[in-house]
Amino acid sequence: MSRLIVSLNYLAFCTRPDSAYSISKLGQYLTCYDKSHWLAAKRVLRYLKKTINFGLIFELGDKVVYGYSDSDWGNSQEDRKSYSGYCFMLSKSVISWEYRKQNTVALTSTELESM
What's the pLDDT tens digit per position in 16-29? Predict the structure, then answer.
């Protein structure tokens, strides 16, 4: 299971950011996975196979970089930690992104946004 998740994570990081969330969730169960996690991993593989022609397209002319960020407040059911992320786009394609679980528990939404 770990080799599959590592391979999928590499793929998501390099070419398929649309699958990163699912792969990230699967990666949280590398030491305690069961049949449901294998089925979820197979579902991700089927999704990637069906969308094999999807990709990042850069158009000429648009030289403006746009940035977006967002976070949720304590949405993890396991430990009440928050997730936050950002992406930068050029020519309508993602050029840099990150999505992560916060290390600490935020007590207010204002505190979370400052993290």
Answer: 878 888 888 888 88
- Nearest Cα to 44, choosing from 12, 84, 90? 12
Distance CA 37, CA 43 (A): 10
d(CA 78, CA 60): 45
The token duo for 108 is: 């207010």
Residue 61's alpha-carbon distances to 56, 66, 89, 90, 103, in angstroms, are: 16, 14, 14, 10, 40
Domain ranges of the chain: 1-55, 57-114
Q: Token pair for residue 8?
A: 């999928």
8 A C-beta contact, residue 28 and residue 49: no
Arithmetic mean of pLDDT over the chain = 81
Three-class secondary structure of residue 58 per DSSP:
coil
pTM higher than the cut 0.70? no
State the DSSP H helix or E strand holding residue 105, giving kind and residue range, or none if neither: none
Higher pLDDT, 109 or 83: 83
